[in-house]
Write a structure and sequence with these properties.
Helix content is 39%, strand content 15%. With 222 residues, it is an alpha+beta fold. The chain has an 8-stranded mixed β-sheet, sandwiched between helices. The N and C termini lie far apart (41 Å).
């Protein structure tokens, strides 16, 4: 089976997203791009994450958008995944979710401000909110791509959250971090006016996140 390992990984992380409360039922979608073949693997439309079979993960040519393999209808958001693989080489995995607090902030059409250092895990001082467009359209794909420039996460107005990473593990971690920050922002706003981190502190956080996860020895050798 073509890209069997990648298909299995997508199924694994789809289940993990449900178990972690980051999505429910058939909501959201996940994909991985195999750079060597120029093919992306994306979840099918309308099938529960615990029901998806490897052959139902749909394979699509990144350049043309043509379906290469798969026994199901690809996600309606396939173009929102494909545009990142086509025009950015730093992202090899994309996760789209309708997480509660990210969706709540997006419903206000607000950017997520620097309320916590973990905002920097998405690669910027904040997480922008993309202009609204109907789900599954090229317009939404273009809006998301524009608003996520230089970052690994974007809020989709009145919709949810989109994240990316070098692999699914990173994209999943960014999803968890930004949903936590959206919840924190929501709860702080309910009490009063949140005090945001200053820009120089966030600049330092961005530098720290570049080395995050490396050993002390490796860090000292750089």
């Amino acid at each position: 089976m073509l890209l069997r390992e990648i298909r299995g990984e997508i199924i694994e992380y789809g289940k993990k997203a449900v178990q972690s409360g980051l999505t429910r039922n058939t909501g959201g979608n996940l994909s991985v791009c195999d750079r060597s073949s120029g093919i992306m693997a994306v979840t099918p439309s309308g099938i529960g994450y615990f029901e998806i079979q490897p052959e139902q993960i749909v394979l699509i040519d990144v350049q043309s958008g043509k379906v290469v393999d798969g026994d199901a209808v690809p996600s309606s958001e396939r173009d929102m995944h494909r545009i990142f693989y086509k025009y950015r080489d730093d992202l090899n995995a994309i996760i789209h979710t309708h997480t509660t607090f990210a969706a709540a902030v997006s419903a206000l059409n607000w950017a997520l401000p620097p309320i916590h250092s973990l905002v920097a895990s998405a690669g910027g001082m904040d997480v922008r909110c993309a202009r609204y467009a109907t789900y599954g359209t090229v317009a939404l794909a273009k809006n998301a791509f524009e608003a996520m420039e230089g970052r690994k996460a974007v809020l989709l107005a009145n919709h949810g959250l989109l994240t990316g990473g070098s692999n699914l593990a990173e994209a999943f971690a960014v999803t968890e971090d930004i949903e936590f920050c959206c919840e924190l922002f929501y709860r702080a706003k309910c009490i009063g006016k949140p005090v945001l981190l200053p820009l120089d502190e966030m600049a330092g956080m961005l530098e720290l996140f570049k080395d995050y996860g490396r050993s002390v020895e490796e860090h000292e050798e750089i």
